[in-house]
Give the backbone structure.
Amino acid sequence: MKKQAKAECASSAKHSNTWKEIDFSKYECKVRKLQIRIAKTQKKKRYNKVRSLQHLLVTSYEAKTLAVKKVTSNKGKRTAEIDHILWDTDAKKVNAVCSLKRRGYRALSLKRINIAKKNGKMRPLGIPTMRDRAMQALYLMALKPVTEATADANSHGFRKFRSTADAIDALHRWLSRDYSPQWILEGDIKGCSDHISHEWLLDNVRIDKHILGKWLKSRVVFNTLLQPIVKGTPQGGIISPTLANAALDGMERRH
């Protein structure tokens, strides 16, 4: 344990000791290079190499720092969940980077809240703690290159550099030809995220199964009651949209 602690201290000692001194653009560049390598390796179907590169990414100080930056600079940065912990000072952020470790990691229960949808119904959200959010952001950096390399060409939801405008442009190109389809089928998967099979995700998504299993099986606190999660990916987690996209990947190629 002492050797491990010394190694971790030595690893972080060569980096900036204060949050304001960190060169985030330099960190982003290093992580991006690793992500490009992961995507290229995934396309070659060298899955063992993909795993090795993903491990290299999630254990890097740079990726951990960017994960902490993400969860402390978005809209949820002032929302403390069931552990009542916020990373609201520079010192806490630096310490948080060192806390993002696979060994001994245990996902805490989610805080359930309901938000109103446009149709008048309620959408349940499961909000993770700051540390769990940061762990999801960290592992999402390693998963994204894989899902982007395998995604359907016309999948636009929850993908970087894709928007509604891209979907409209694709529709225009399909429907403006002489041989274009005469009918459009609009469909909606009822409770998509809420019903995804945990077993399917664990068997098919190229991510650390040990960590993914902890997120999927974490429980929910609602009205002071602790409830288990037996299926689905709780909406509110940073990684949930990408897991949903991974489950839907391949639909376009079947038609």
